[in-house]
Amino acid sequence: MAMNSVPPASAMQSVLRLLSIPGLKKLGVGPLLAALVLLAIVIITLLSPWLAPHDPLEMQPLLRLKGPMPDYPLGTDPYGRDLYSRVLIGGRVSLLIGIGAAVVSVLIGLLIGLVAGFFRMLDTIIMRIMDSLMAIPSILLAIALVALNGPSITSVIMAITIPEIPRVVRLVRSVVLTAREEPYVEAAQALGSSMPKILFQHLMPNTMAPLIVQGTYILASAILTEAILSFLGAGVSTEIPTWGNIMAEGRQYFRIKPELILWPGLMLSLCILSINLLGDTARDMLDPRLKKRGE
Amino acid sequence: MLFKTRNFDDAKTVLDISDLVVSLPPAAKAKPVLNGISLTIRQGETVCLVGESGSGKSVTSLAVMGLLPKDALFVTGGSISLSGTDLLAQSPGAMQDMRARRVAMIFQEPMTALNPVLRVGEQIEEVLESHTKLPADERRRRVIDIMEQVHLPDVERVYRSYPHQLSGGQRQRIMIAMALVLEPELLIADEPTTALDVTTQKQILSLIAELQEKHGTAVLFITHDMGVVAEIADSVYVMNHGDMVEHAPIETLLRDPKKDYTRKLLAAVPSLTPRAARPAPGGDPVLRVEQLNMVYGGGGLFKRHPGTHAAKAVTFDVARGRTLGIVGESGSGKSTVARCIMRLIQPTSGAIRLRDSDIAQLTRKQLKPHRQHLQVVFQDPFRSLNPRWTVGRSLVEGPVNYGQSPAAARERAAELMEIVGLPRDSLDRYPHQFSGGQRQRIAIARAVAMEPDVLVADEAVSALDVSVQAQVLDLLDELQEKLGITIVFITHDLRVAAQICDDVLVMQRGVVVEQGAAADVLANPQHDYTRSLIEAAPGRSWDFANFRELGAA
Q: Which residues, 6 or more positions from A250, have their beta carbon under 8 angstroms from its beta carbon?
């Protein structure tokens, strides 16, 4: 009932009401704005099939490189496709690859890192393998994978994930190395707790805070890498619009119609900026050094 | 002579604190951290400020230094004057100039108080650089001079050393040199010997006394150790929860304390006289350690490095229901022995027989059935419980590992909470909601829940205030009586060892130098090292709990 009584004009008021939730108030204006922007981008991207006025692949030879008009809010590209629809739909692949790469690299990295940190025998071997993985440039790896398997979302996720894994492993390992010396871990050993129990119940929770922060950075850099790969033509197939390959196609027409790069570029920048801002906020909030001991 | 009996009535007052009130921000609506305390120190006098953790000793020293944490603590009343200068009226800049030049401070942990990436000589020189306009060679001469005064060996080499290359005692000497190089009127020493071994502590205490004599410095010495107080104080101030409870010249205070709190504090100081021997045990020993050796490091990829021999041919046994103390200074190998017995590390060679099975070289899997007979209590109660787990979850972990049903384990855990003197509903709370002493009780309950034969207590009371220490020792005693547990008690504190142990084993650099009944070893030590340990124990000729000299019955 109370919801119905809110007139639509008071959207500002509900934002203000949102601000009064204690947790959000502590966030500050910057991170809150970033969260709202990111939320908007995600919602728009998820709803893009219904929001987009046109099929992003439908070519209209008569309407090539047109400026904004009622039916085409951002104009059209060199093939007469609707730029607005393409930018909306393009976000889907970008976000999918970003989230996919972040989740996969965090999960694999977490497992390897726990093992490397806990078992001294395996540590040296695992870390040397990680060092060599880290030396692989993701762009070259992507080009090689695409050449082998053909352009696909999986290839791109793999290409981004592999060089990211060692960074996660190093992070998790360092946390485990410090935590395993804690007396409560030794006490658990003395209580006869099994190795998996110590690893997953005592040690793993310590890695969560830094991993969430690292995850946001991987997410941002994966979205960016995907755009670079698509821009270079080593990403997903050009039939699937992504922010990267929309910009790549717009490159030749940059002088005539800069909007072809401007709009997807703007979305990309906004998206990455807000993810990074949120990552910084998460770090500030989760950093144990800021938490007072014994409170 | 037992105590200092110098008279300072004619000396000029150096520090005068009167009715000092320090509060939390008004929003906190809490009672003041310092509640109108007053204190005077005269030139050349040593004043000890004693109290348990949270009593406000350190806040007092920080207030004098003008180093109260900004936005967290505020001086809301009273005055602090240093030889007539009102310290509270000084600007931050003036205060900064005053520090080191007129008031200096030394801290508990010299490793963290020194910059790890600068040579120590340069760090002392930096003090001169920022407060004087001396030319470089004069500065260096002054640094070398003060380093000689604090009796550092091979001054030229030490000057060029980094903090990690020096021993704990040497680092504290550097801190003292740094504090005294500008000849301040007042030296504040905040627990400066707490992190040091007793023999080193003795040297540092006499060094501070010597330099004080020479320079006429007034010393404010903050400590929780009554033994140290007896050794060095001219007069003593006792603090509790931000109030100044009592102050008196040292002998008056120890002989005839006026306030209940002071009496309680003194009564809790464990006596160096070993407890009465308990009847000799019957039956076979529960734990036998034979020729235990532990070498750290060594190996190396191409060349064998010698490694560190942390325990050499350690042999002992303990009978059921008895307490064995392993005593030694840092680096003596006592903790290594404890960790070997617990099988947290694998000994290089030797046998550890627990109820007749040798567990020294068993694998992780093979160890599991033995683990439940062998439990441990660690030193730091803030780190020995998983901060993310409720107390109940920590307590049932062990029994559930050995097949008890979670419900039964929880019921037992609740009983144990009562046995260790905590309410049953403690099980649903988290470790950070308890004090240090309470947490140590929880850690003990967790160990006892396994119904072990042997309990290893690794410096289990060293991090606690004396009054809490006494309670925890009583609890261990009571549990031993009730359950017949054998306790291996690792400690650096001879007073604690005297309180709780039936037998004592003294270790030095990995070797057992003396072992036997506590009464024999502590009352009539045979080995030089044991003797030097006992001699270094501060205040050893005073019976604190009975307010008289030891042996004066």
A: A77, A257, A260, A261, A264
